[in-house]
From TrEMBL:
This is LD-carboxypeptidase. The keyword Hydrolase applies. Gene3D superfamilies: Class I glutamine amidotransferase-like, LD-carboxypeptidase A C-terminal domain-like. The keyword DNA-binding does not apply. It comes from the Bacteria. Residues 53-168 form the LD-carboxypeptidase N-terminal domain. It holds the Pfam family Peptidase_S66C. Keywords: Carboxypeptidase, Hydrolase, Protease.
Amino acid sequence: MVSFAVQRSANDAGTARDGVPCNDLAGIWQLANYHDDVAVPIYPPKPKPGDCVAVVSPSRGLPGEVPLPYELGLRRLQEDFQLRAVEYPTTRTMGASPQARASDINAAFADPQIKAVIASVGGSDQITVLRHLDRDLIRANPKPFFGYSDNTNLVLFLRSLGIVSFHGGMVMTQYGRPGALHPMTAESLQAALFTSGEFELRQTPQFGEVLGSWQDPRTFEVEPQMEPADGWIWHNANRVVEGASWGGDLEIVSWLLMADLAVQPVEVYSGGVLFLETGDSMPSAEEVYVIMRSMGERGLLEQFSALLMGRPKTWSRHRTLDADQKAQFRKAQREAVLRALTEYAPHVVAVFDVDLGHTDPQLVIPCGGTIRVDGPERRVFVTY
């Protein structure tokens, strides 16, 4: 497959896969009267079909070593979403320095021809990139950013700048899903990319979490393994709450809290909706409780009016559980979260097993955007 052309600096015109320079359809959009303690972030302008989007690797250049899901994801971006992907110097480069990865991100936000920024995949050291990002440049040129897992770093960095970002939708995992793009994922991505307004999150009858080998072409010829999904589990579902969201991968959130990065004074999150999920590391229930206890001691948990907790990942290439063990893992994690809420935020409305994390399908969450949790009706709405 022919690779996408690579943009190499903020001053060069972006070139999409078809070789045609991206059209500059809009000027730079300025955030007016911004302060670091802003409580309600602003939605950046959305791309339109035909626009150019940056594909970056803020964590690791895995596309260079495992191209099959990446190339499939690029093809779907173009064919299914009519978006023209522009690569950057570190998109396919494993071991790129934090400075080089940050340079790509800065360049993508600086280029007025780029209308959104999408992460290729996650990793584990994106926190080292944040110090090299140009806060003023990015704040002055807000764009939708899509990513999750280790990209929680950039998601919450943008949230701290007053920019709504989008938790979910990476090239190799969602766009590059084996078989076909999951319909629920596609619907959520379509709405988050191109529309504004309220979108209802729906429960899935089936979910998947087992990944085949990304190096085996046969993996992509068949649908992934799925299993029946239990419905959402509600706690304190006696009222309707609405607020600006904050959160992401729980482990990454804990790292940011330890480093005191991309975290604002706790009062900024008052009345908001917290969303959390646990990823491939499959932390124990005790680890989950300890992290949330620390959030409680910081005075953070009590600020939120609701919590959306993602469906836990109970499979990884390094750890497999049988059906009973999976059920116990999920139950133990839920009980750990409820224990922390009981101790620090007993008022919170909580919804468990929402498909917002490392399982399939995936629903995109607007970080900093509005979420409405309707307890009596057992419904959840996000504003894209």
